[in-house]
């Protein structure tokens, strides 16, 4: 999911990109398909709305039950058509709507930021057990950080959308992170953005060091929380 606030793909945007299609050397047939493509962003938007609603309910319930919600905040976006085409090209898929639906899993994307690492796993357990979605894939970059230091847990889920034509399963990517992981990933994106060369090794090493610092911060906060909870439970002297 790109660091992008846009939550709407408008018809207007889409038409601009149809004009761009020549540059992408897509087949005429696909260009036609793209022209008929306007229903698709709406479909993903509906799926994202449903997902936002589910998470919102959870947040309220957790808050009411425990006086604290593991979910700090959420952000969602629909991938813009140009990025979809870029990704299909990068992954070597022929430009067809079928391929797009099958292989591009983050057209609808949500980022859930939690306070503590434990909260992420609680939330994942909950999402895996739900009957109103299927978790298709889990990538745990928290247990196994990427070589640059990136940490997050990614889920690919599918959700049923009940339409006039019947039920359609729509995929979405959910990225779960702590506040510290989100800080690092957002900063890395800002620093790295538009830099398409290999990073000098000392810069890459310092970024990795910063990721370790974020990890230590997470662990320290968890320790402090445990200590505060224990103090709260101790009878007054
Ligand atoms: P893409 O990386 O999107 O082509 O797909 P993938 O199948 O490799 O998925 P992966 O789960 O590795 O990454 C998906 C998304 O996670 C990316 O689009 C980013 O939003 C985020 N992400 C992955 N790696 C990094 C990273 O090193 N830094 C930052 N800032 N974000 C990352
Ligand atoms: Mg990737």
TrEMBL record:
<keyword id="KW-0418">Kinase</keyword>
<keyword id="KW-0808">Transferase</keyword>
<feature type="coiled-coil region">
    <location>
        <begin position="207"/>
        <end position="234"/>
    </location>
</feature>
<dbReference type="InterPro" id="IPR007685">
    <property type="entry name" value="RelA_SpoT"/>
</dbReference>
<dbReference type="Pfam" id="PF04607">
    <property type="entry name" value="RelA_SpoT"/>
</dbReference>
<keyword id="KW-0175">Coiled coil</keyword>
<dbReference type="InterPro" id="IPR052366">
    <property type="entry name" value="GTP_Pyrophosphokinase"/>
</dbReference>
<dbReference type="InterPro" id="IPR043519">
    <property type="entry name" value="NT_sf"/>
</dbReference>
<feature type="domain" description="RelA/SpoT">
    <location>
        <begin position="76"/>
        <end position="199"/>
    </location>
</feature>
<dbReference type="GO" id="GO:0016301">
    <property type="term" value="F:kinase activity"/>
</dbReference>
<protein>
    <submittedName>
        <fullName>GTP pyrophosphokinase</fullName>
    </submittedName>
</protein>
<comment type="pathway">
    <text>Purine metabolism; ppGpp biosynthesis; ppGpp from GTP: step 1/2.</text>
</comment>
<dbReference type="GO" id="GO:0015970">
    <property type="term" value="P:guanosine tetraphosphate biosynthetic process"/>
</dbReference>
């Amino acid at each position: 999911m790109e660091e992008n606030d846009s939550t709407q793909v408008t018809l207007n945007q889409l038409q601009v990109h149809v004009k761009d299609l020549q540059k992408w050397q897509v087949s005429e047939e696909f260009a036609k398909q793209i022209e008929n493509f306007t229903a698709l962003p709406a479909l993903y938007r509906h799926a994202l709305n449903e997902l936002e609603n589910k998470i919102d309910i959870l947040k309220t319930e957790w808050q009411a039950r425990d006086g604290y919600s593991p979910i700090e905040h959420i952000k969602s976006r629909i991938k813009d058509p140009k990025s979809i085409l870029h990704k299909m090209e990068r992954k070597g898929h022929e430009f067809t709507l079928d391929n797009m639906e099958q292989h591009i899993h983050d057209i609808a994307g949500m980022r859930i930021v939690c306070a503590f690492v434990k909260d992420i796993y609680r939330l994942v357990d909950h999402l895996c057990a739900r009957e109103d979605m299927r978790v298709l894939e889990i990538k745990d970059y928290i247990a196994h950080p990427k070589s640059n230091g990136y940490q997050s847990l990614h889920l690919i889920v599918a959700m049923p959308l009940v339409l006039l034509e019947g039920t359609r399963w729509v995929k979405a990517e959910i990225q779960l992170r702590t506040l510290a992981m989100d800080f690092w990933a957002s900063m890395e994106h800002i620093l790295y953005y538009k830099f398409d060369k290999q990073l000098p090794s000392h810069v890459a090493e310092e970024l990795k060091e910063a990721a370790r610092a974020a990890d230590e911060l997470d662990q320290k906060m968890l320790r402090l929380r445990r200590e505060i909870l224990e103090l709260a439970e101790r009878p007054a002297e």
